């Protein structure tokens, strides 16, 4: 740099003047910086979202599975077993044919190219020897694609599976799925039949197979029907004891949110900094609740939980819950941002310290540039609690319940009061990440004709720990009053 | 939070320390960026990029000289790098065209004090104001400016001479400074003082 830089009056004037010039950046600059410097901090919220989606999917799938408790594959396997029992009683005679080789060649031998009707002759109660398919000569790889290299894909007498059984499997398969990968076991020997990959080329359901479909019960003989009914009777879906005691509840609770604000530390009286003078001279003697203008706002809670009956009157509950908490504070948007300070706790010494911050909002409520600052949080909780039946029988019951809710704060907006109580500072880093909530509720539940239970009743939710972390000299406790609406179904 | 705590926390990627450091220096640094930039949005982009470099390179700071000076140096270099990405910028600093430029009275903003001067600097053509900012305010030499902007040292000198003359004219017209006939010295008006 040139040493004689300041020799010129004009240059000196420019330097002095320009050095005094300051501008306050908008908050998006810091947000952009923060996101660049801490990209990993986006992950918790993303992970929680994924967890929520996974939980919803899991609940959906498990409900679906409970409806279709016995899979189609199990049905086909059971049919095989039953068919053997059926045949062994003399209703049908397994044919003593040579092994059926599905693996060595993907097509049936030419001499087996007969009508499928020949396979099964109900009137004679007899099963034909061939597994040929359609009149047009359906190939095996239309319906069954086996692993050619695997010896276990060969069905032989040694495997103990008759053609009849295989024919039954073929009969069942179109009920399942044209693209389903079937993996089952040879029943007698325990050997695994490897993949029977049912491909859709063309779909089996479109092939003209004259074998009576399992659904076409009218085509079966009395003996067949009798066997099917017997099968159905002895193969009822097993219902576990757990499922008889447990139900699942979806719920939503619109509510109104409030907060209680207290101060937990003060500036020491002997502080000598210029900023401290500024603060101590301007402290407003009014109670804290009169220094801020705050109002309630709409909140929402939704989730799902498992209710498990311990006794006639008591049931435990636990689940996963999402909460949106919200309240408003009235402020004025500043045309030019202000430099201000936050009063924070020094976690090492416990003393109150001042930290500079930039504020875009004044804690005043003049009509000009008035704005409602939304203080909100997104919480993910695991509610654990119990319901007690107070009264009622049959379809209408009255319960009281309570839950404790460890909560993760996934995000939110926080406007903190400045040290001189004249400004609000948006500072999401002050948000406490983990909190503990509790809820008390009472509700009526009504069981509808189709077994679904509808419940509704008032709920109170309280946040035990402050919304702010330990650094901030204010303590804020949130609480809500709402109406909980729930739908309860069996698993 | 003391400067040492801020430095230590920022090096450890502590968000609170980073924010404290940002809050302390960002207003002045945005003022620097604003003198180089076309508008406030561009200035904020420069500031953001500059502070990212500050935070990522802070471990290289050796406590030699003021922290503000170190940060300012990084921010100025960031501003120049961003300006150089604009093709028009190279042309504007390389062509000496002061005689063809006339400052209209309407262009001069009527803003008070420091901002008034800064706004007057920003009226200057891009090449002029960049050289003037670097030489007169940031303290770069013409050789350094030549290297920084990829121009001849002599070009930097002539750009600065003309920029200075033009700025003087603007400031006199706005009655921010007074020029006494026959004297080289300038005095500030009461408004600035």
Could you characterize what this model shows?
The complex is a heterodimer of chains A (491) and B (193). With 491 residues, chain A is an alpha+beta fold. Chain A has helices spanning 9-19, 27-37, 43-67, 72-88, 140-143, 163-176, 222-234, 241-245, 274-282, 288-291; strands spanning 120-121, 126-127, 181-185, 192-197, 246-263, 294-309, 314-345, 352-362, 370-381, 384-393, 396-413, 415-417, 423-426, 434-447, 453-463, 474-490. Chain B is built from 9 helices and 2 strands, in the order αααααααααββ. Chain B has helices at residues 3-11, 15-36, 40-57, 67-84, 87-94, 113-123, 126-137, 142-149, 153-173, and strands spanning 177-179, 186-188. Chain B has a two-stranded antiparallel ribbon. In chain B, a hairpin with a 6-residue loop joins β1 (177-179) and β2. In chain B, α1 (3-11) crosses α2 (15-36) and α5 packs across α7 (126-137). The radius of gyration of chain B is 18 Å and the shape is globular. The model of chain B is unreliable at 97-111 and 189-193 (pLDDT under 50). Chains A and B meet through α1, α2 and β8 of A and α2, α3, α6, α7 and α9 of B.
Salient structural properties:
heterodimer; A: two-stranded antiparallel ribbon; 16 strands; disordered N terminus; B: 193 residues; mainly alpha; two-stranded antiparallel sheet; 9 helices
The count of helical stretches of chain A stands at 10
Order of helices and strands of chain B: HHHHHHHHHEE
Number of strands of chain A: 16
Q: Give me the number of helical elements of chain B.
A: 9
- Tally of DSSP β-strands of chain B: 2
Give the helix level of chain B as a range of percent: 55-70%
Structural class of the helix and strand makeup of chain B?
mainly alpha
The main β sheet of chain A shows up as: 12 strands, antiparallel
Q: What is the averaged pLDDT score of chain B?
A: 79
Q: Compute the CA-based radius of gyration of chain A.
A: 37 Å
Largest sheet of chain B: 2 strands, antiparallel
Q: What portion of the residues of chain A fall into strands of 2 or more residues?
A: 35-45%
Distance between the termini of chain A: 79 Å
Termini separation of chain B comes to 33 Å
Largest interface: A-B, 37 and 49 residues
């Amino acid at each position: 740099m040139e040493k004689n830089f300041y020799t010129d009056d004009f240059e000196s004037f420019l330097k002095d003047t320009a050095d005094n010039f300051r501008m306050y950046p908008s908050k998006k600059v810091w947000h952009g910086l923060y996101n660049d410097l801490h990209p990993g901090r986006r992950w918790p919220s993303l992970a929680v979202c994924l967890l929520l989606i996974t939980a919803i999917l899991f609940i959906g799938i498990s409900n679906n599975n409970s409806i279709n408790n016995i899979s189609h594959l199990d049905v086909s396997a059971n049919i095989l077993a039953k068919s053997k029992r059926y045949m062994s009683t003399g209703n049908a005679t397994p044919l003593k044919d040579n092994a059926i080789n599905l693996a060595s060649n993907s097509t049936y031998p030419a001499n087996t190219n007969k009508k499928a009707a020949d396979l099964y002759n109900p009137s004679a109660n007899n099963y034909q020897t061939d597994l040929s398919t359609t009149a047009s000569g359906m190939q095996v790889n239309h319906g069954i694609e086996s692993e050619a290299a695997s010896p276990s894909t060969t069905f032989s007498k040694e495997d103990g599976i008759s053609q009849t059984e295989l024919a039954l499997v073929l009969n069942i398969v179109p009920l399942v799925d044209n693209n389903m990968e079937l993996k089952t076991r040879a029943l007698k020997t325990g050997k695994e039949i490897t993949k029977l990959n049912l491909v859709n080329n063309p779909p089996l359901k479109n092939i003209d197979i004259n074998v009576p479909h399992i659904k076409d019960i009218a085509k079966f003989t009395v003996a067949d029907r009798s066997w099917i009914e017997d099968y159905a009777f002895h193969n009822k879906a097993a219902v576990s004891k757990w499922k008889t005691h447990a139900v699942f509840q979806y719920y939503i609770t619109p509510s109104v949110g409030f907060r209680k604000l207290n101060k937990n530390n003060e500036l020491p009286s002997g502080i000598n900094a210029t900023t401290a003078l500024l603060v101590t001279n301007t402290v407003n003697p009014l109670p804290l609740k009169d220094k801020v203008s705050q109002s309630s706002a709409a909140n929402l809670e939704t989730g799902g939980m498992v209710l498990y009956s311990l006794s006639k009157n008591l049931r435990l509950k636990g689940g996963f819950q999402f909460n949106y908490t919200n309240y408003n504070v009235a402020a004025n948007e500043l045309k030019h941002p202000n430099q201000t300070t936050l009063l924070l706790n020094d976690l090492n010494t416990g003393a109150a310290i001042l930290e500079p911050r930039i504020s875009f909002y004044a804690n005043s409520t003049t009509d000009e540039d008035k704005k409602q600052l939304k203080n909100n949080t997104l919480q993910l909780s695991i509610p654990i609690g119990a319901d007690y039946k107070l009264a009622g029988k049959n379809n209408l019951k009255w319960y009281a319940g309570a839950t404790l809710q460890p909560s993760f704060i996934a995000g939110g907006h926080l406007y903190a009061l400045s040290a001189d109580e004249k400004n609000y500072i948006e500072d999401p880093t002050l948000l406490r990440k983990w909190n503990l909530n509790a809820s008390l509720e009472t509700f009526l539940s009504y069981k509808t004709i189709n077994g679904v239970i509808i419940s509704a009743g008032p709920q109170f939710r309280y946040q035990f720990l402050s919304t702010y972390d330990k650094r901030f000299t204010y303590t804020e406790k949130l609480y809500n009053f709402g109406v909980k609406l729930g739908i309860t179904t069996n698993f | 939070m003391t400067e040492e705590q801020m430095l230590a926390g920022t090096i450890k990627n502590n968000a609170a320390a980073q924010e404290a450091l940002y809050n302390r220096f960002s207003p002045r640094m945005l003022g620097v960026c604003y003198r180089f930039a076309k508008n406030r949005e561009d200035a904020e982009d420069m500031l953001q990029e500059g502070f990212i470099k500050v935070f990522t390179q802070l471990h290289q700071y050796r406590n030699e000289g003021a922290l503000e000076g170190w940060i300012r140096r990084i921010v100025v270099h960031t501003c120049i790098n961003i300006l150089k990405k604009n093709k028009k910028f190279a042309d504007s600093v390389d062509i000496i065209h002061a005689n063809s430029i006339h400052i209209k009275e309407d262009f001069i903003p009527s803003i008070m004090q420091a901002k008034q001067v800064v706004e007057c600097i920003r009226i200057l053509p891009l090449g002029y104001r960049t050289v003037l900012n670097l030489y007169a305010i940031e303290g770069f030499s013409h050789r350094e400016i030549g290297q920084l902007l990829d121009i001849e040292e002599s070009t930097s000198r002539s750009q600065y001479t003309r920029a200075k003359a033009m700025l003087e004219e603007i400031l006199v017209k706005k009655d921010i400074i007074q020029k006494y006939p026959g004297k080289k010295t300038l005095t500030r008006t009461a408004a600035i003082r």
